[in-house]
Design brief:
Elements (H helix, E strand, L loop, with lengths): L11 H7 L26 E11 L5 E10 L8 E6 L2 E6 L16 E7 L2 E9 L2 E12 L2 E13 L5 E7 L4 E7 L15 E6 L12 H7 L3 H7 L1
Length: 229
């Protein structure tokens, strides 16, 4: 099985490095007590949800982040807007997926939270092949960066699992492979589980948010990262 590239929460080491701690279930429902919107919606969009809180460590900045959905178009790209100090500092259509992009799960956006200096966003979807992705965003030197990510997939029929967790602040990468426990007759997958730790190449340390598309498709298997050096 190939890992779905548009892919459970980040490992504790990422949360510790960003000064954040996640609590509750792996994919808790988005807080229904949403604050008022950050600003008026962009033309052709409605504001779906918003979160506010301090971002950064040790110096924090008051931030408001909202998710916009295209009017009457559940297949359209959502937009996420970042406001710092009341001013728009960043807008991206790459972080959150459309309302119907989660396959059998429907809406893939399962977590949106600001906690202890970072923004957490999680997407989850698929049918037989379930995929998930968790992102941690924070600010460094006045700019938004990706502090860490976890991409994972699971074949619900065979049990094969792949998981890649990256801490872009400390540079630690963990890649985990669990072979199928119910392999198909023609399955050529490795029968041995693999749990590796390696170092993130410097070029990927605290990348900008506009690199998300490349992060999703790059591949974070420690065995391959070691060969690419």
């Amino acid at each position: 099985m190939r890992m779905m590239q548009r892919c459970t929460p980040l490992l504790a080491i990422v949360a510790m490095a960003t000064g954040c701690l996640m609590s509750g279930p792996a994919h808790a429902a988005v807080n229904s007590d949403a604050p008022k919107t950050c600003a008026a919606p962009d033309a052709g969009y409605t504001v779906e949800r918003s979160v506010r809180g301090p971002i950064g460590k040790p110096d924090t900045v008051d931030v408001c982040v909202d998710v916009l959905t295209p009017k009457n178009n559940p297949d359209g790209d959502r937009r996420m807007r970042f406001y710092t100090g009341g001013k728009l500092s960043l807008a991206s259509n790459d972080i959150t997926m459309c309302q119907e992009c989660g396959g059998m799960i429907a809406d893939p956006l399962v977590a949106l939270e600001i906690k202890r200096g970072s923004l957490f966003v999680s997407n989850l979807g698929g049918s037989r092949e379930r995929w998930g992705e968790d992102w941690v965003f924070t600010m460094r030197d006045g700019r938004w960066v990706v502090a860490g990510w976890t991409l994972h997939s699971r074949d619900t029929m065979t049990g094969l699992q792949e998981r890649y967790s990256v801490n872009a602040l400390t540079g630690e990468v963990r890649s985990d492979y669990v072979p199928p426990d119910r392999p198909e007759p023609d399955d050529t997958s490795s029968k041995r589980p693999s749990h590796l730790t390696c170092t993130l190449p410097n070029a990927w340390r605290t990348p900008a948010i506009d690199q998300l598309a490349k992060i999703r498709t790059h591949g974070w298997d420690c065995a391959k990262l070691a060969k690419s050096k």
